[in-house]
């Protein structure tokens, strides 16, 4: 069986030069930024925006893409929709694990005008409570000793330091689900640079020549299955180990503040705005928060996919009540949260996308802050409801406790801390006492913490959430 490559798909247009370095070459980037870049090049004929993709933790994606010359098939699936296209914007793949110096050199290349990132929340190595770089992170400490950098911020700063010598401006574009992601990344870079010997000069150049625009990205991209690969091979006659499956919907909103040129993304649907915050906040607090709620409760109820979880009328009702009662009052008044909530729940119900509840549930310690706790703090300041937000946080607490008691390992960068907390006599209070997650204001003795504890006590050890248990929780929290 022949494999997808430039030889077997010569009709796919390819960039000639490198214009973007992307850190975090996962399925989401390929379904989103790489696809937008490919389509923009098709419309304009501009061949200067080749993407050098960097895999951070695993060489698996590199091993999938390199034999295919960076080509992959993007399959969009939804009710009545099933279409496939080959994306050709990725021209080079580097494994940071095996060649960190090549990553730094790629970032330093003056032809590169954008460095973008999808490294998930944990890739930023930040303290979830403060949003600052963790200076005691052992990998950060190791990078600062002068080794070839192994962290994203270490790679980024090393590349920027080389660009400073060339005075080559660049845009660093975070595409991760974090509030004010560009400003957050700029702060992490500043924290890291401050520990270097050349901090004053380097930071001065970064302030004048590097842009960190905020952005919001949206597309549901579940893990590709062996069945997806077999089906595509049967249909096309070509083996594609790097196929990506996603929903038809996509959105990308970017603050229009670039230090150098950018692709003609606006021609293929990207929105350039002065302030991305209203879109970013609505997406994090509606889509991502309800995704997490459905994942934690879905796992515990035996639902393997998000589509299964949202098909559970009790769980769907909980998600909707959280959005309408607790989240909507914290959003920008010009944003149509009701319509967006209904659209989101419809997208979650897409039966053709087996987005697993466990995949969404991972890394909860990093996700609670941007998805739920920021909303809690805003709601408390407004004096509005936090009842269902407390249930959402309690669902994470119950998920952690029940997973560990069942002997399953947590897929979370703070797994050791959470495991120690969950082993305490009062596991709920111990988890809520983890200040790296909840800060000093939302701990077990706070009004919100007490509401979370009350809900968690009813959830821990139980299986499916029922109409009766929801009513009991509502009475306890009212």
Structure summary:
The chain has helices spanning 27-31, 33-44, 60-65, 100-108, 138-144, 152-166, 181-193, 199-209, 226-236, 277-300, 306-311, 313-327, 337-348, 357-361, 364-382, 387-405, 415-422, 427-432, 435-438, 447-459, 467-477, and strands spanning 18-23, 50-55, 72-78, 81-87, 90-95, 114-117, 170-174, 210-211, 215-218, 244-246, 251-255, 271-273. It has 478 residues and is an alpha/beta fold.
Summarize the topology:
Elements: E1 18-23, H1 27-31, H2 33-44, E2 50-55, H3 60-65, E3 72-78, E4 81-87, E5 90-95, H4 100-108, E6 114-117, H5 138-144, H6 152-166, E7 170-174, H7 181-193, H8 199-209, E8 210-211, E9 215-218, H9 226-236, E10 244-246, E11 251-255, E12 271-273, H10 277-300, H11 306-311, H12 313-327, H13 337-348, H14 357-361, H15 364-382, H16 387-405, H17 415-422, H18 427-432, H19 435-438, H20 447-459, H21 467-477
Helix pairs in contact: 4-6, 6-7, 10-12, 10-13, 10-15, 10-16, 12-13, 12-16, 15-16, 16-20, 20-21
Q: Taking all residues together, what is the mean pLDDT?
A: 95
Number of strands: 12
Helix content: 40-55%
Q: Could you tell me the strand content as a percent range?
A: 5-15%
Structural class: alpha/beta
Widest β-sheet, arrangement of strands: 5-2-1-6-7-8
Number of helices: 21
- Low-pLDDT segments: none
Shape: globular
Radius of gyration, CA atoms, in whole angstroms: 22 Å
- Give the distance, in angstroms, between the N- and C-terminal Cα atoms: 63 Å
Main beta sheet: 6 strands, parallel
């Amino acid at each position: 069986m022949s494999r997808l490559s430039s030889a077997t798909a010569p009709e796919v247009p390819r960039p000639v030069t490198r214009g973007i370095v992307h850190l975090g070459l996962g399925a989401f980037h390929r379904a989103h930024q790489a696809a937008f870049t490919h389509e923009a090049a098709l419309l304009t004929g501009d061949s200067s925006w080749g993407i050098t993709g960097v895999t951070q933790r695993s060489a698996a994606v590199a091993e999938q893409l390199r034999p295919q010359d960076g080509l992959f098939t993007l399959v969009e699936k939804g009710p009545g929709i099933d279409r496939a296209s080959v994306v050709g914007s990725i021209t080079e793949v580097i494994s940071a694990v095996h060649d960190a110096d090549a990553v730094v050199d790629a970032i330093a290349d003056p032809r590169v005008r954008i460095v973008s990132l999808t490294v998930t929340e944990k890739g930023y190595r930040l303290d979830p409570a403060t949003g600052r770089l963790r200076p005691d992170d052992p990998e950060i400490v190791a990078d600062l000793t002068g080794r070839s950098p192994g962290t994203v911020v270490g790679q980024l700063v090393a590349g920027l330091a080389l660009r400073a010598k060339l005075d080559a401006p660049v845009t660093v574009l975070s595409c991760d689900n974090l509030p004010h992601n560009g400003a957050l990344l700029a702060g992490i870079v500043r924290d890291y640079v401050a520990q270097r010997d050349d901090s004053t000069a380097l930071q001065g150049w970064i302030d004048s020549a590097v842009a960190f625009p905020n952005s919001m990205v949206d597309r549901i991209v579940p893990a590709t299955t062996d069945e997806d690969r077999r089906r595509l091979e049967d249909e096309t006659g070509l083996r594609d180990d790097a196929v990506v499956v996603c929903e038809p919907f996509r959105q990308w909103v970017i603050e229009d503040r670039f230090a150098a040129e950018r692709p003609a993304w606006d021609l293929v649907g990207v929105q350039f705005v002065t302030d991305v915050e209203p879109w970013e906040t609505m997406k994090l607090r509606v889509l991502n928060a309800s995704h997490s709620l459905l994942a934690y409760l879905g796992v515990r109820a035996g639902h393997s996919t998000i589509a299964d979880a949202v098909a559970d009328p009790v769980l769907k009702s909980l998600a909707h009540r959280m959005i309408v009662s607790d989240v909507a009052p914290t959003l920008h008044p010009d944003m149509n949260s009701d319509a967006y909530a209904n659209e989101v729940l419809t997208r979650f119900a897409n039966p053709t996308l087996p987005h697993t509840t466990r995949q969404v549930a991972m890394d909860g310690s990093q996700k609670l802050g941007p998805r739920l706790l920021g909303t809690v703090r805003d709601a408390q300041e407004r004096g509005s409801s936090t009842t269902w937000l407390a249930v959402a946080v309690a669902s994470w607490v119950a998920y952690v406790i029940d997973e560990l008691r069942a002997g399953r390992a947590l897929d979370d960068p703070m797994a050791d801390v959470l495991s120690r907390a969950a082993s305490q006599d009062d596991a709920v209070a111990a988890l809520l006492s983890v200040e790296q997650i909840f800060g000093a204001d939302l701990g077990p003795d706070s009004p919100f913490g007490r509401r979370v504890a009350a809900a968690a006590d009813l959830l821990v050890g139980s299986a499916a959430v029922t109409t009766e248990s929801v009513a009991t929780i509502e009475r306890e929290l009212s």
